[in-house]
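Task: complex structure prediction.
Instruction: return structure tokens for all chains below.
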Amino acid sequence: METFHKLPEHVAIIMDGNGRWANEKGLPRIAGHKAGVETVREIVKTSLEVGVPILTLYAFSQENWKRPKEEVDLLMELLNFFIDKEVKSLVKEGVRLKAIGRIDALPPYTLKKLKEAIELTRHNRKLTLNLALNYGSRAEILDAVRGLLTDRVNPEEVSEELFTSRLYTAGIPDPDLLIRTSGEMRLSNFLLWQLSYSEIYITKKYWPDFTKEDYLEALAEYQKRERRFGDVCGKKEVAG
Ligand code: IPE
Ligand code: IPE
Ligand code: MG
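Output:
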């Protein structure tokens, strides 16, 4: 397995293109989502192999509720299926499952499964697999603001650190690398605060076609990036 001298500590992925993948094959959209689950497995496995410690996957956005009910229902079923099938190997492989988003609004059965898996894997430390579910970045920011107001925090005390600690991602460092598949050049309400200084890698490949090699290529590309965080070029990295 390839080794990287500069490995991102946190990779975030907008897994996009399942529907188009299926359309082009004359298949129903859900076939694309099913194929996408296989890619998730492969990317989790590769993250463990190369030693990426945190992987955040955008699995269902708050805006995705707009989709036809049949598609939403099937996406939730796929999530149940994924958890059921994978939880044992997550425990075995040292993967800690986490979720970000307004997860309490997920269907009760899905929420129960998710919470059980989070509980079962909570001591694992090799890889944190963070699923963004019913996630919206603006909602996350508003929830943080509401929390601060409810706790009557003194405006003077509201620092970047404090605000960060009120987000769903509290305790998780910002992504170093954002990957988006299927070529769209947008964030789609994903981690707006946390991606401020992340390196962005966009590939035209649809998510079900995104392979281990494609992931390694993204990691290799990350090696070449010089992160400046606003400083002048050529300096040793001081943050991230
Ligand atoms: C990403 O694929 C999966 C989810 C958003 C759940 P899409 O379903 O968005 O696929 P396209 O963008 O329609 O091809
Ligand atoms: C973003 O993809 C959400 C997920 C990958 C879960 P979308 O397909 O929903 O984004 P838009 O609508 O193309 O911006
Ligand atoms: Mg899409």
